[in-house]
Predict the structure of Uracil phosphoribosyltransferase.
Amino acid sequence: MRLHVADHPLIAHKLTLLRDVETPSATFRQLVEELVTLLAYEATRDVRTEPRDIVTPVAPTTGTHLAAPKPMVVPILRAGLGMLEGMSRLLPTAEVGFLGLQRDEETLQAITYANRLPDDLSGRQCYVLDPMLATGGTLVASIDYLFERGATDVTCICLLAAPEGIATVEQHVGERADVRVVVAAVDERLNEKGYIVPGLGDAGDRLYGVV
Ligand code: URA
């Protein structure tokens, strides 16, 4: 697994506003979109391209175009939905699939409760959107799900990560270079309730309210 922690003053500034308990939902949503667009720039560094011949008003030239098949963006419900707009802004031609995962309270394993993805993801580059990499269970299940359907590489975009979650993903996927995690910051730890510390609280609740 390759980990990239974004190191940019604008990201640090927006993340600080995002963490602030006083930040209202509308501002929170706006900040998430902006942060994802900045992270997506880094996360798409390895997006596959092919040469394309075009003619400018001055001369023919060979440029670069995103290669087929189209990349697949996969927001993890529900909080990942808040990241979709920011990602789509940078990658408007990508297709979007949805994955809903929740923890089985008995086995503590992540189980899929919703899925709107093609069965065959052969050759597709996938971009998983999940704001909080906490225990890592959801991300590991998502990565497995996508690879089982033939995805060729998986890049996870997260806003915050706990060291425990990063370790879980690392242990699960090992040295694979086709799994990347791009994150705005790595925090101190998880608390006893599984929240990232200092974190930003429950990302879904802060985006959409407590429902
Ligand atoms: N999910 C969240 O929304 N927040 C955390 O701190 C951990 C998991």
Summary: The helical segments are 9-19, 25-43, 84-90, 137-148, 163-173, 203-208. The chain has one domain: 2-48+67-194.
